[in-house]
Amino acid sequence: MSTVVDAGALKTWATDVFARLGLREADAALVADTLVEADLRGVSSHGVQRMTGYARGLRSGSIIAQPEIEVVQDSGWALVVDGGRGMGQIAAQTGMRLALDRAAGGRHGAVAVRNSTHCGAMAYYAMQAVPRRAIGFAATNAGMNMMPTGGREKMVGNNPLAYAIPTGRDAPLVLDMATSVVAGGKLDVARLRGEQIPLGWALDKEGRPTTDPVAARQGALVPLGGPKGYGLAVVLDVLCGVLSGGRFGKGLGLPGSSHFFEVYQIEAFTPYDDFIARMGELVDQLHDCPPADGSTGVVLPGEPEHRLREQRLRAGLPLEPTLIGELNNLAASLEAPRVPGT
Amino acid sequence: MSTVVDAGALKTWATDVFARLGLREADAALVADTLVEADLRGVSSHGVQRMTGYARGLRSGSIIAQPEIEVVQDSGWALVVDGGRGMGQIAAQTGMRLALDRAAGGRHGAVAVRNSTHCGAMAYYAMQAVPRRAIGFAATNAGMNMMPTGGREKMVGNNPLAYAIPTGRDAPLVLDMATSVVAGGKLDVARLRGEQIPLGWALDKEGRPTTDPVAARQGALVPLGGPKGYGLAVVLDVLCGVLSGGRFGKGLGLPGSSHFFEVYQIEAFTPYDDFIARMGELVDQLHDCPPADGSTGVVLPGEPEHRLREQRLRAGLPLEPTLIGELNNLAASLEAPRVPGT
């Protein structure tokens, strides 16, 4: 039975935990915000369940608590940021902020970030463009979990990308997708339930299709649409890792990942109000689409996450008992208070 | 039995045909080049088999033979081009050339194109960035052939995107992919052979999965990865159609499509030679990946197309008898010579 927790109180609590783990206060608040925002949007794979893993990284020194973030290249519209191997959220937020700044006043900004670590859900960064009347793009490379099409060694991540686009409605258009058919977490769910997985989700360690979630976990995720997902993952690896001079390809066997952020001010192409009028028309068309059998209707990408966030901001965030136990153990080890309301 | 045709001679022949259809000489050569280049790369869906359809459009006036191409917005890095409802290749090439020009000298250019028509394979445009030491991006919206996830009316195209990235090797990294699981042409192939199609390729007109290629053709293509392909298709529709003020969504029920081109000069992020050294490392890693059972090894995205082009430039381009018949009928109707060597 889940316990329902207030999102604001959870952010404050998580900020305190990250500060006790050695982060600067503002950085602790940022990391807490990214995690709870992901939970609010129903993306629990990138929510507070990440805290125990992050704590392990900070304690072992594989993640540096107070990194030096450095701009190592600045061409006006294009920058490269070194994340100092701190928490990825700190480097990523620096990158996105710089892209937003450079795009201000009808321009465009692109920032490649290297020497970072896991930075949470990419939508968090892309969405910051929306109130700035801009289109946001964010991508990262991930640990190696896919085999290139035709290969049987993992050397590509299921690198995700996110776009966020203003609509003039309460929910912006937000697409946040990985380049694998399914996330790795779905294999674990099947394994815990003792179920087989559908053919097409994963390969065994020889690169053969498998329905066994254990063999799949030792193997690899299948790229979305085969060569399409493989190709897109490699392109994103180039934008993130190769452009920035950071880790890419098999280099990701060691800690340190890379990101890419981009902001396009809409006014540079078309008057903003005209753009919003057209986006409203597109949203209405999609909403008015007759539903397929068994469907409750068509939603804009990112709309269900937006609705869930609104509901959870009002009614609270459900957390599973196992997760609460883990979080309270982490808190106890830092002499921090328990998760609020538990 | 296919007839093998010299690619250069075929370009000259197709240029003559398009000139007879009323195009300006340079435009006729451009359109011929895009088509034969697609055939050389094995992308016959976007090759000379398009000529009879284009001729119908030109003769009916739905495509204007000598369009006025106009730059309707210019913000330095961002432009909007109106294609005058001419052949899409003319507007698209104008857009890509402007993006390349604006990106020269370590910068970035983005061009949205409206009031265009089918412009061929997107890789043709993206690849022009490679000799300019830049990363190229190209996208277009397409006729409505997909239902939004959960809907049963077609209102999204399987909008493709292309990236081209220099590698320092003979083959650049080129990804050119549609956002549907398979191209519509694969349904026709199955129908002609009297075969069923796999579940997951297409929906019938009620939005239900089908294995019947006839029902599928009356229905819709399935977006790549469900909501992922739907989401990506909508994002590309925004970059192309909404940003440019052109057709988008259900507006694509009428003639006129929109494109988006972008060029990123690599030097703005990192010294070009360093980038190329890292790309070489990435290519070597992928080539050295042990092959999966039954595979001949891992290739870089776009590498097979590059190899096929080299081979076909030397040995000639095979054309099917049915296609040759269609092309010769078109030529006869214009009092043009037959396809060379047929």
Q: Find the CATH topology of the largest domain in chain A.
A: Ribosomal Protein S8, Chain: A, domain 1
**Beta-strand proportion of chain A:** 15-25%
Instruction: Give the end-to-end Cα distance of chain A, rounded to a whole number of Å.
Output: 12 Å
CATH superfamily caption of the largest domain in chain A: Malate/L-lactate/L-sulpholactate dehydrogenase, NADPH binding domain
CATH class of the largest domain in chain A: Alpha Beta
How would you describe this protein?
The structure is a homodimer of 342-residue chains. The first copy, chain A, folds into 2 domains: 1-65 and 316-342, Orthogonal Bundle (Hypothetical Oxidoreductase Yiak, Chain: A, domain 1), CATH 1.10.1530; 67-180 and 223-288, 2-Layer Sandwich (Ribosomal Protein S8, Chain: A, domain 1). The first copy, chain A, has 11 helices and 12 strands. The first copy, chain A, has helices spanning 7-20, 25-40, 51-60, 88-103, 123-126, 185-193, 213-218, 227-244, 272-287, 303-315, 321-333, and strands spanning 3-5, 70-74, 78-82, 108-116, 134-140, 161-165, 173-177, 202-203, 209-210, 220-221, 257-265, 317-319. Chain A has a 7-stranded mixed sheet with strand order 2-3-4-11-5-6-7, with helices on both faces. A 3-stranded antiparallel sheet of chain A has the order 9-8-10. In chain A, strands 1-12 form a two-stranded antiparallel sheet. In chain A, helix 1 runs antiparallel to helix 2 (25-40). The longest helix of chain A has 18 residues, at 227-244. The two termini of chain A are 12 Å apart. The model of chain A has no long low-confidence stretch (mean pLDDT 96). At the A-B interface, strand 4, strand 7, helix 8 and helix 9 of A face strand 4, strand 7, helix 8 and helix 9 of B.
